[in-house]
C-alpha cells in the first residue's frame, strides 16, 4: 500500500512539473536537491516527509501535492534528552538584508549557504516579480541572483511583499533606480508611524519622499537633494541603518551615518558592500563613513556569517533539557554578554579556540554547554544595542529562568507587546507574571507538563514555547507554526537529529 501511495503521489508530482514546463533538473534546483532524487520521487521510490511535500507543492504551485489543508503543527513528546553535534546556520537577518542589497548591483550576486526560510522565500518571490532571476545552485543553499536591466516595479508580488517585514528595506536601493515607485505595506502587520518614520528620516537626505495611501508606500525621489551633513539616525535600528547604508552605497560621495547599529546583520551588509567596491569605514562602531559609487556592476560572491539568535536558541534547548550538546560555528562576538549572564546564573560550558567565518571577519567558536544547576541573576535581564545583550535573545531567558532557582525579572523595553507572549509558558506549568507590557517576572524551578498551545504570532516567543515543550513531561502540540518557519530552517528536523521527538503534521 505504501509503494502504491508513493507511486500515485509521484505521478501527481510528475504531471504538475510538466504542467509548469519544468525539467526534473529545474525542479531539483527549486528544491535544493538533485535530479536523481526528483526522478526517484516521481517513480514512487522515495519516502517523502511532510516538509518535502510542502516544499514541492510550493515549488509547483500545486495544492495536489499538499497533505490536507491549513497550517502545519508540531507534536512534541518529552521530556527530551539531547546529545550530539549541531552547526549553526547562517544569519536570517543578514540573508534578507543581502537579498535587498543585491538590487544595488547590476551584476551577478552569489550568496553562500543562505538560510532557506519562509522570510527568504517571500523576498525571492518579490524579487522575481520585479524581473530578478534567482536560482538555488546546490544542496548547500547557495543562491544566485541576477537583476534585469530594468526592474518591473508595476508587477510587484503584493501578496508575498505583505508577508515579509523586510520589504521596507527596498527603499534604500530602489531610490537610485526609479524616480517614483510604490511598495506594499510591509509585514502583514501594522507598522505604526513611529516604526516607519526612522526609515524615512534616514532616507530624506537622499531626496526620498514617501506618502502612504491605499495600503502602499508611494515614493518619489528629488535627484537635486543630496546629503549635505552627517545623517543622524533617530533610532539605532538594524533595518534603518541598513536602509541608510544601501542608499549611501550608490551615492557617489561620502556619507557619514551616526547612531548607526553595529549589530551582526549590519556588519555582514558592510562586508558585502565592500566586496561591491563601496568604501565603508567604522564597521562595528556607531559611526559609519560610506563612499559610494555612481554605478555597481560586478560579479560578487559572499558568504554571510552564522546566526547568533539561532545559536542562542540551540543553547537554550540544551539548558532547559539539561543536555550536553556541541554547538558548532557560534558567532561568539555577538554572544559574549549572553554567555556572561548565563555564567553568572551558574552555567558551565566548554569553548573552543576562535576561528573565522567564511566572510573572513566574524569570529566563531564551538560551544559545549554542560548540565548545570542554575540560579536567578541578581539583577534584571534587559537588552541593549550591540555589544549589549541582543534584543532577539532576550525571550530565551524566559524559558531559561523558568528552570533556574529564584525570581528573574526580564525587561523587554523595545517592543510594546512581545513580553505578553512569554506568559504562555504558564500553560506548560511555568510561573510567569506579566508586570506590564514590557516586564515579566519568572520564578523557578519549573516542572513543565505537556499541553496544547496555539503558536504565538511572534517568532522568538514561539520558539521559546517549543523549547519548553521539549522539557515538558508528556505530549504537547504547538499549532500553526508558520511563524517559526519564517525564521528557522528545518528546526524540528534538526532537533530530532539531536534526540528530540517532534512530529510535523497537518489537520486532514
Structure in words:
The chain is α+β, with helices and mostly antiparallel strands and 508 residues long. The chain is 33% helix and 22% strand. Strand 7 and strand 8 (216-221) form a beta hairpin. Helix 5 runs parallel beside helix 6 and helix 9 runs parallel beside helix 10. The longest helix is centred in the N-terminal third of the chain and has 19 residues, at 2-20. The two termini are 19 Å apart. Pathway: Cell wall biogenesis; peptidoglycan biosynthesis. Belongs to the EPSP synthase family. MurA subfamily. Its EC number is 2.5.1.7.
Structural class: alpha+beta
- Largest β-sheet summary: 5 strands, mixed
Average per-residue pLDDT, rounded, comes to 90
Rg, rounded, reads 23 Å
β-strand number: 23
- Beta-strand portion reads 15-25%
- Assign an overall shape: globular
Multimer state: single chain
So how many helices? 18
Low-confidence stretches: 187-194
Main location: cytoplasm
GO molecular function: UDP-N-acetylglucosamine 1-carboxyvinyltransferase activity
Pathway: Cell wall biogenesis; peptidoglycan biosynthesis
Subcellular location: Cytoplasm
Question: TL;DR?
Answer:
The chain is α+β, with helices and mostly antiparallel strands and 508 residues long. The protein is built from 18 helices and 23 strands. Helix 5 runs parallel beside helix 6.
Fold blueprint:
Blueprint: H1 2-20, H2 24-31, H3 35-42, H4 50-60, E1 72-78, E2 83-87, H5 92-101, E3 109-111, H6 118-129, E4 133-136, E5 143-146, H7 158-161, H8 171-174, E6 180-184, H9 193-203, E7 208-213, E8 216-221, E9 231-232, H10 238-249, E10 254-258, H11 264-276, E11 279-281, E12 287-291, E13 300-302, H12 308-320, E14 324-331, H13 336-344, E15 348-351, E16 355-356, E17 363-370, H14 396-402, E18 406-411, H15 418-421, E19 431-436, E20 439-444, E21 452-454, H16 459-470, E22 474-479, H17 482-487, H18 491-497, E23 502-506
Parallel strand pairs: 2-14, 3-13, 9-10, 21-22
Antiparallel strand pairs: 1-22, 1-23, 3-5, 4-5, 6-8, 7-8, 10-12, 11-12, 14-17, 15-17, 16-17, 18-20, 19-20
Helix pairs in contact: 2-3, 5-6, 5-11, 9-10, 10-11, 12-14, 12-16
Amino acid at each position: 500500500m505504501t509503494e502504491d501511495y508513493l507511486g500515485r503521489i509521484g505521478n501527481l508530482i510528475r504531471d504538475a512539473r510538466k504542467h509548469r514546463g519544468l525539467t526534473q533538473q529545474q525542479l531539483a534546483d527549486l528544491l535544493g536537491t538533485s535530479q536523481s532524487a526528483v526522478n526517484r520521487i516521481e517513480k514512487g521510490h522515495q519516502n517523502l516527509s511532510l516538509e518535502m511535500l510542502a516544499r514541492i507543492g510550493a515549488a509547483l504551485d500545486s495544492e495536489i501535492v499538499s497533505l490536507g489543508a491549513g497550517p502545519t503543527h508540531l507534536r512534541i513528546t518529552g521530556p527530551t534528552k539531547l546529545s550530539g553535534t549541531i552547526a549553526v546556520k547562517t544569519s536570517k537577518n543578514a540573508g534578507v538584508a543581502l537579498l535587498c542589497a543585491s538590487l544595488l548591483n547590476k551584476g551577478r550576486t552569489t550568496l553562500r549557504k543562505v538560510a532557506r526560510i519562509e522570510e527568504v522565500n517571500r523576498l525571492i518571490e518579490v524579487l522575481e516579480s520585479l524581473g530578478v532571476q534567482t536560482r538555488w545552485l546546490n544542496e548547500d543553499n547557495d543562491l544566485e541572483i541576477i537583476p534585469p536591466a530594468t526592474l518591473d516595479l508595476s508587477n510587484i508580488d503584493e501578496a508575498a511583499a505583505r508577508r515579509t517585514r523586510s520589504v521596507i528595506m527596498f527603499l534604500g536601493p530602489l531610490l537610485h533606480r526609479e524616480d517614483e515607485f510604490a511598495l506594499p505595506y510591509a509585514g502583514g502587520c501594522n507598522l505604526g508611524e513611529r516604526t516607519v518614520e526612522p526609515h524615512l528620516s534616514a532616507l530624506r537626505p537622499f531626496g526620498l519622499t514617501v506618502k502612504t495611501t491605499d495600503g502602499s508606500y508611494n515614493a518619489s525621489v528629488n535627484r537635486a537633494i543630496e546629503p549635505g551633513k552627517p545623517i543622524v539616525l533617530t533610532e539605532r535600528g538594524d533595518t534603518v541603518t541598513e536602509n541608510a547604508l544601501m542608499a549611501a552605497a550608490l551615492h557617489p560621495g561620502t556619507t557619514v551615518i551616526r547612531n548607526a547599529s553595529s549589530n551582526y546583520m549590519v556588519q555582514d551588509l558592510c562586508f558585502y558592500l565592500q566586496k561591491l567596491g563601496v568604501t565603508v569605514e567604522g564597521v562595528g562602531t556607531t559611526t559609519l563613513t560610506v563612499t559610494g559609487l555612481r554605478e555597481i556592476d560586478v560579479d560578487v560572491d559572499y558568504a554571510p556569517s552564522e546566526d547568533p539568535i539561532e545559536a542562542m536558541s540551540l543553547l537554550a534547548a540544551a539548558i532547559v533539557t539539561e543536555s550536553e550538546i556541541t554547538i558548532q560555528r557560534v558567532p561568539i562576538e555577538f554572544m559574549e554578554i549572553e554567555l556572561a549572564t548565563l555564567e553568572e546564573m551558574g552555567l558551565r560550558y566548554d569553548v573552543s579556540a576562535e576561528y573565522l567565518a567564511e566572510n573572513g571577519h566574524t569570529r566563531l567558536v564551538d560551544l559545549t554547554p554542560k548540565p548545570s544547576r542554575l540560579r536567578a541573576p541578581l539583577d534584571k535581564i534587559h537588552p541593549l544595542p550591540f555589544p549589549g545583550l541582543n534584543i532577539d535573545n532576550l525571550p530565551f531567558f524566559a524559558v531559561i529562568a523558568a528552570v533556574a532557582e529564584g525570581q528573574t525579572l526580564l525587561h523587554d523595553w523595545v517592543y510594546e507587546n512581545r513580553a505578553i507572549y512569554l506568559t504562555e509558558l504558564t500553560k506548560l506549568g511555568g510561573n510567569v507574571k506579566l508586570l506590564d507590557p514590557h516586564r515579566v517576572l519568572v520564578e523557578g524551578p519549573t516542572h513543565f507538563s505537556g499541553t496544547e498551545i496555539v503558536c504565538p504570532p511572534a517568532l522568538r516567543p514561539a520558539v521559546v514555547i517549543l523549547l519548553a515543550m521539549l522539557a515538558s513531561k508528556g505530549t504537547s502540540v504547538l499549532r500553526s507554526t508558520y511563524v517559526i518557519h519564517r525564521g528557522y530552517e528545518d528546526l524540528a528536523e534538526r532537533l530530532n537529529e539531536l534526540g528530540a521527538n517532534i512530529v510535523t503534521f497537518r489537520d486532514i
